[in-house]
TrEMBL record, chains A, B:
Belongs to the DSD1 family. Keywords: Lyase, Plasmid. Residues 266-373 form the D-serine dehydratase-like domain. This is Alanine racemase domain-containing protein. The keyword Lyase applies. Pfam families: Ala_racemase_N, D-ser_dehydrat. The keyword Lyase applies. It comes from Aminobacter aminovorans. GO terms for biological process: D-serine catabolic process. GO terms for molecular function: D-serine ammonia-lyase activity.
Length: 389, 389
């Protein structure tokens, strides 16, 4: 059911917003959602969006206009929240501890949702027996794969893969598949490298599924994804589902990787000018790391965007103006080193928008989105976010 | 009035907490509060604590056991929150925009609090006339000083100091003093340099007050401070009040500067082990940057603490174990480069605590504190935090 949460009187505009405020551009959001949905459809896989970026039922409703679909979550607070809104098919994409497994199954018991759990060790598998007994719910489990030395997970050829599968079954849980995340793709920046990373993620993940099947495990779910590889995958044979999260909003890191343009970035922080140091080329604004996050993900990319790219109040990029420094509630705007641009005239009280290095991190600093569309100043709605664990 | 908010049944222990959770050690908090209060008393100045770190009325009650005292705030959300709890004397330590000044005075009108505003330009001063007229409240104003090229503010000898003072008075506002923040002291690391920075902050601030007085402005408030200079100041002649915020909790950055010991750090994030990569020397935990923050403030210090120092569940430091990498909900523990230690045995489900690089940033990622005392596992209380702007 499509309902606009907390519709705001039409007279409210971004000029009335307290600064700093988090702005979400509905047109860009809609375009980004459609782009990956189309791509997944063409590749013949289910899209299981990761809700860790948006953390909002109102955003989820734009992703699933016809009703709840399969999702990925990063916390059990998200799982409980989306379950309360009718979402039934979730993967909790963080390796389980005995305590988190128990809590997840309690949510399943209470809401009727199925929260699929993730693990990669025999210790985690063994712990499921007691969790099953305590909660009376049979856990559904995916084995986490390591396809690019990024974080956790087992290599497809690791003999532990079969050992873990056996222990999952021995614990009385359902082994429903394998899951990979090509997290190292964030460090790439050419289409060729991204296409290759997507194919390498696919090959390793499908191989793990085949090994499991050769040992008698059905492995119905073959799940992979990261925003860069999801967009650059050309073939997903053998894969059943694709996961991505930041693609709904995009950000400067994804722009640096080459997955989006700056004008695809759907969130920004509205800030007010509160001073200047003309002798240093500085403009001071009332958005620091509390509003922008401390994320400096572009620092290791070809173009370092400081704490974010600065736009005018309508969202048009002010060329080569970045947030060069940030303290808790102060940002310092300056011209990017090496640029021949001069700082535009931004008197005290002027409002600007700042694009995120990392959308997940910027959004996490805010309790809600003020939804706009394009360059219109009208606020269409306020969409709440959830937080915590 | 001293009341424990939301007292938790005594049976609740940190073993029952969801991970990640933010832990506050009451004993350490009490000791840190007493240390700076004693120092301010010896120096003969009023302490005006900055609430931007704790953002909690329960912490404020430990700072002011006899009832509300003078405070500093970083957002107008904090101002409104503390006003609703009886705090009357506040400095909003972020330069004003016309919109924020209006909102601050509306809070004053509604609550009876006095929120002193900060500015350093004639444009901000001129804007006060209309704000005064709209709200019917006479603004109280401090001029922001720049004592170490850190951020905003005027140099004491800048002729604009007198010009801005004149325009504040012309706008019908009360000029109540000057304010400095020696933010560059965070980059120091010897007692000599810190003592010198504190004295330099004092000299510049007092000089600005004297210049204003020579021009006929009374300048009753002479306010300065930063956690490092506040602790190392040896003489505050001419100063009326001292400000600091992070000192209540302390953190690894302050430890690197030399202001505290590791066992003074009062907050930490409780996390659970969810896996390991023995071949890489990694232990994986369920606390990433969402729980720890993206702050890497120790990266530029002599000892880089990664995303934080790891302790056992009781808060005892595991020597040379740090969080070396962090993604949204995953942290990777490893042994500090160059150390001859080996990783302790931390099986899946083990709980650890992680000390913050930057207490303001870590606390900001959480909605509440679970309050403990020392190595006892009992949770004494849950103290809520406020967020937003």
């Amino acid at each position: 059911m499509q309902t606009a949460a907390k519709t705001i009187p039409p007279s409210q505009s971004i000029h009335d917003l307290v600064t700093p405020s988090l702005i979400l551009d509905r047109g860009r959001l809609t375009r980004n959602i459609a782009r990956l949905a189309d791509h997944a459809r063409q590749l013949g896989v289910v899209l299981r969006p990761h809700m860790k970026t948006a953390k909002s039922i109102d955003v989820a409703r734009r992703v699933f206009p016809d009703g709840p679909g399969p999702i990925t979550v990063s916390t059990l607070a998200e799982a409980g929240y989306f379950a309360s809104h009718g979402y039934r098919d979730m993967i909790y994409a963080v390796g389980l501890s005995p305590a988190s497994a128990r809590r997840a199954l309690e949510i399943c018991w209470r809401t009727g949702a199925e929260i699929k759990l993730l693990l990669d060790t025999v210790e985690q598998a063994d712990a499921l027996a007691e969790v099953r007994e305590t909660t009376g719910v049979i856990p559904s489990v995916l084995i986490e794969l390591d396809v690019d030395d990024h974080r956790g997970g087992l290599k497809p050829d690791d003999p532990k893969l079969i050992e873990v599968a056996a222990r999952v079954v021995a614990a009385g849980a359902n082994l429903v598949g394998v899951l990979a995340h090509a997290g190292e793709s964030y460090g790439l920046n050419t289409p060729e490298a991204l296409v290759a990373a997507a194919e390498s993620e696919r090959v390793a993940t499908v191989r793990a599924a085949e090994i499991l099947r050769a040992h008698g495990y059905a492995c119905p779910i073959v799940s992979l994804g990261s925003t860069p590889t999801a967009h650059f995958a050309q073939n997903l044979d053998g894969v059943t589902e694709l996961r991505a999260g930041v693609y709904m909003f995009f950000d400067l890191v994804q722009h640096g990787v080459g997955v989006c343009n700056k004008d695809d970035i759907a969130i920004s922080v509205l800030a007010s000018v509160i001073g200047a140091k003309p002798e240093k080329g500085w403009i001071l604004v009332d958005a620091g790391w509390m509003a922008l996050s401390r994320d400096r993900g572009t620092a290791s990319q070809r173009v370092d965007q400081g704490y974010g790219v600065v736009c005018d109040e309508q969202g048009r990029v002010l060329e080569d103006v970045i947030v060069s420094q940030a303290s808790q509630e102060h940002g310092i705007l300056s011209i990017r080193p090496g640029s021949d641009k001069t700082m535009p005239d931004l008197p005290v009280g002027t409002r600007v928008r700042i694009l995120p290095n990392h959308a997940c991190a910027m959004a996490a600093q805010h309790a809600f989105y003020s939804v706009v569309d394009g360059e219109s100043a009208g606020i269409e709605a306020r969409w709440d976010r959830i937080r915590g664990w």
